[in-house]
Amino acid sequence: MTSFSFIHAADIHLDSPLSGLSAYEGAPVELLRNAPRAAFSNLIDEAIRERVDFMVIAGDLYDGTWKDFNTGLFFSGEMGRLKREEISVFIAHGNHDAESELTKHLTLPDNVTVFSTRKAESKPLEPLGVVLHGQSFRDAKTEENLAVAYPPAVPDCFNIGVLHTAVEGHAEHAPYAPCSLSDLTDKGYDYWALGHVHEYKILSEDPLVVFPGNLQGRHIRETGPRGALLVTVENSKPTVERLFVDTVRWHRIEIDAGPAHSLQDVVRLARDRLETLLAKVPTDDHLRRASFSRVAPEPTANFLAWRLNCAKKFWPSPTHWATTSFGSRKSSLTPYPNWMLPPLRHARTL
Prior knowledge:
This protein is α/β, with parallel strands linked by helices. It has five helices and 18 strands.
């Protein structure tokens, strides 16, 4: 079997609106609005740069019903870029894709294969000795176990399963196409390319069963770097490398404001924490703005609520303060602070 590589992506949610900052004055609205598209374009750049043999998208390419047909035209154009590089793409639609009627009428370049909604099917890549098995969602609320009906592994081939699923143990996600881990590993496939869970997770090492996480964090609950996986196969053994392609990155920190006696003390505490973070994160012109909020006890037993907004990398001075208010002591008033940090257009790490 020859050596080859492919990209495993999922939960792209093209044109999904990012939430949490666009309502604030001075927020980079265009950056937020275009982030899912920009991240996807970065992914296509990586596929071309790495000269991968094919790409797998394991569901939720789109974000439900489209606002207009431009979403599909954009995706078709990006697939055209891959076609010119002779890179094939295999897609298993997920619950959000099934919500859209337009996905059924979109004409895509012939390098793109969408798995059937009727039953699981197998797609061979004979020059590579690869067979991909997959099934798309017919309905958004697909609640039956699709994995059990996937075909058996093809002997003497590298078998890849593509599935959008809520594998057992992920109760925080809607239980679409639920299955157990053993339903997957018992198939005898060499790699399972999963989608639906927005966090990067390896469920099994042998065989590799992996969620790549979503391509772009969409709100403060989706923190840290986001992207896809570069899978390299040598001697039938796959290894994965994370490709970070997000263009807006969310971070969450907690500030202990107990020692603070004034707002200036809070500024110093915030600056120290932010400088620590920024020292660890590559920065360039994409770092536009940071904001965070905090409610914390003062030594006087009052609570101080504030919002700090700054436009400089190292926060030399606040641009403005929001409303300051006081109230009675309640130990439950400890929401986490957060800020939005646009990082490099793309970065890569192991």
